[in-house]
């Protein structure tokens, strides 16, 4: 049986990523009570005619248009339909599950005011892995992505069940439900808040955490192959620089390279190594420090209410608050930072690849080709890495500064948290490919070593795992097939 994550208090980014990966999601009795109580407050607001944005008013620039009680259900339905204008390829299953998990967690705080039936339908779809098709593009924040989920709840839109595409009505039928009739506020709540950005941010953190470990491993293999100086990672001198991430990377590199005969053989042959080797703790460590900060921001976001308006009080004394909690400025800034950190890790990896393939600095056969001239070896693999680094540089431009004006000046500052998270995922995909190339190039370099080639225990073990799957390259097959094989290894193996 899949693992079950239960919402009681706030979820963490790790829990969102776990649900995105296939775990079931449930709600505690306390969380269910919070949802039910918040709905009673909305019902009281409606009954008393207390003005509330998107409850009994229009939305956006129409916020001062009062909606009669008999039209409030139509308002909710129309909000979902009109906001479902996303375009482009749909989010992958794991990405869409992350959005749904974060959305349910946001409702479970008990300040949104949707009925428990809405949350139960979302949970049932998620746990049955019947996942709405969410177009990936066309939103400056979150509206179009979330509306695609809301569509399915009212019997419109599409969902995927494995490889089978279902209409919204068919998706609901699979879980024993009829299309839902939305009540006051529910349409706005279904398209509102930062769950889309938060869900993608949780995935980005999970992927970044894994790739940071692989980046250290790849750097260690390259470092050993290039005859570098092991004392660059000595604990005492590294401790002079105040950075938890730097100390973590330094320790990991010492573990990877412990008692390396190859490094012992080249000890003292250089005064210092080039920065792409010597500064691995500093660059990789800075990225880890950024990761820690972003993780804190995302967890803080998950513990926050990001619906607008939020409701509070009691049915006897209901309150509605039109704040800007749906604005994801903190997430946008954080994800821009994580994107740059990932791009930096990719950039230093490509520089190490270049040193491996360049005979002027490596002391190895040119381009790691056994028959230089007839064979090109890893010559063009380095081109591929350089191209991906250049793409990362373009993607790393800050999305949070893109700005824009929407809704007739009512929404006149945009922070682009969801685009920031999505482009971070693209950079991480490129990072994974670049690290895959470095790992393969380092394994090839071991095969061509003119020295003894006796590796450290841990690098020898990783080399063996690579060679169990991918043989030495001899211009005898398309190289991109090897890239796919090593990525599969990276995604399924632990270090």
Automatic annotation (TrEMBL):
<dbReference type="InterPro" id="IPR024083">
    <property type="entry name" value="Fumarase/histidase_N"/>
</dbReference>
<protein>
    <submittedName>
        <fullName>Histidine ammonia-lyase</fullName>
    </submittedName>
</protein>
<dbReference type="Pfam" id="PF00221">
    <property type="entry name" value="Lyase_aromatic"/>
</dbReference>
<dbReference type="InterPro" id="IPR001106">
    <property type="entry name" value="Aromatic_Lyase"/>
</dbReference>
<dbReference type="InterPro" id="IPR008948">
    <property type="entry name" value="L-Aspartase-like"/>
</dbReference>
């Amino acid at each position: 049986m899949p693992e079950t994550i239960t919402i009681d208090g706030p979820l963490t980014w790790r829990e969102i990523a776990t649900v995105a990966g296939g775990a079931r999601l449930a709600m505690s009795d306390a969380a269910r009570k919070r949802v039910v109580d918040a709905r009673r407050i909305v019902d009281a607001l409606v009954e008393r005619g207390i003005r509330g944005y998107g409850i009994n008013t229009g939305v956006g620039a129409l916020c001062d248009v009062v909606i009669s009680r008999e039209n409030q259900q139509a308002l909710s339905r129309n909000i979902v339909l009109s906001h479902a204008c996303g375009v482009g390829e749909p989010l992958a299953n794991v990405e869409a599950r992350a959005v749904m998990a974060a959305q349910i967690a946001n409702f479970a705080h008990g300040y949104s005011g949707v009925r428990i039936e809405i949350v139960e339908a979302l949970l049932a779809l998620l746990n049955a892995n019947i996942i709405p098709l969410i177009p990936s593009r066309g939103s400056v924040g979150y509206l179009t992505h979330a509306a695609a989920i809301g569509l399915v709840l009212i019997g419109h839109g599409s969902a995927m069940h494995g490889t089978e595409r279902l209409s919204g009505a068919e998706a609901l039928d699979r879980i024993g439900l009829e299309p839902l009739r939305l009540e006051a506020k529910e349409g706005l709540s279904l398209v509102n808040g930062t769950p889309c950005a938060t869900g993608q941010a949780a995935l980005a953190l999970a992927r970044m955490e894994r790739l940071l470990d692989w980046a250290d491993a790849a750097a260690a293999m390259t470092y050993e192959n290039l005859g570098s100086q092991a004392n660059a990672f000595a604990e005492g001198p590294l401790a002079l620089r105040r950075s938890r991430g730097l100390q973590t990377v330094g320790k990991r590199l010492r573990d990877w390279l412990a008692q390396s005969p190859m490094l012992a053989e080249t000890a003292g042959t250089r005064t210092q190594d080039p920065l792409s080797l010597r500064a691995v703790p500093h660059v990789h460590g800075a990225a880890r420090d950024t990761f820690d900060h972003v993780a804190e921001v995302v967890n803080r976001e998950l513990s926050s209410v990001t619906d607008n308006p939020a409701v509070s009080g009691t049915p006897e004394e209901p309150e509605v608050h039109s704040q800007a909690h749906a604005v994801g400025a903190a997430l946008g800034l954080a994800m821009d930072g994580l994107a740059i950190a990932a791009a930096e890790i990719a950039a230093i990896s490509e520089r190490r690849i270049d040193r491996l393939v360049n005979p002027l600095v490596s002391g190895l056969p040119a381009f790691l080709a056994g028959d230089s001239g007839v064979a090109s070896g890893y010559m063009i693999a380095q081109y591929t890495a350089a191209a991906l680094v250049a793409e990362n540089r373009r993607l790393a431009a800050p999305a949070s500064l893109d700005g824009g004006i929407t809704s007739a000046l009512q929404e006149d500052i945009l922070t682009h948290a969801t685009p920031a998270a999505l482009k971070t995922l693209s950079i991480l995909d490129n990072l994974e490919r670049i690290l895959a190339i470095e790992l393969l190039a380092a394994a090839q370099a071991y095969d061509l070593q003119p020295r003894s080639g006796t590796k450290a225990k841990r690098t020898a073990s990783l080399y063996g795992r690579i060679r169990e799957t991918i043989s030495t390259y001899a211009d005898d097959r398309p190289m991109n097939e090897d890239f796919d094989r090593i990525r599969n290894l990276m995604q399924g193996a632990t270090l």
